[in-house]
Amino acid sequence: MTKPFSQACENNKNHILKALQPALQNAGSVLEIGSGTGQHSVFFAKKLPHLQWYTSDREVNHQGIKLWHDEVQLANLHPPLLLDLNYSWPLNKVDAIYTANTFHIVSWELITRFFAGVNQHLNQQGVVCVYGPFKYKGEFTSPSNDEFNSLLQSRDPLSGIRDFEAVEQLAVQYGLKLLSDTAMPANNQLLIFKRQ
């Protein structure tokens, strides 16, 4: 198998790291949901050695993630867990949960299940970091996001760029408070929530 590669991961990793560092400075463990190619996990585990970084995804992506991990052999980087938002999560508690470019891919029902899982598995005072595109007051932040949303929904009507206000309201229902909403390159955002 050829090692998977995402140019978007390469483009955004330094910008995300800069925003993540203060949010994760007091954390000891992070669960990444939807690790995809595995590129983010390798980069962040290397740059944030105080963290135990747990990757997870559906089984179809595990081999690619392992190829990235095998190249670096980091003690704080863990093999991918089998995690499907339709089912229970295969771990106990963590200090932080990170997910990138997942909310516009999965259905709203699975986003609800994501926050239910956060409620069960995030330690007190833990943080949740969500990266990706969002709409604000029903409006896209750029014409390209509008076009991207149309493409997503043509492939899967249950997917699409989410309303920030709806995501924040759902997070609040599960005991989270928004700490920051940082604009990122390529019309993305990084939302950071904290468990109250």
TrEMBL record:
Domain of life: Bacteria
One Pfam assignment: DUF938
Matches recorded under InterPro entries: DUF938, SAM-dependent_MTases_sf
Protein name per the record: Methylase
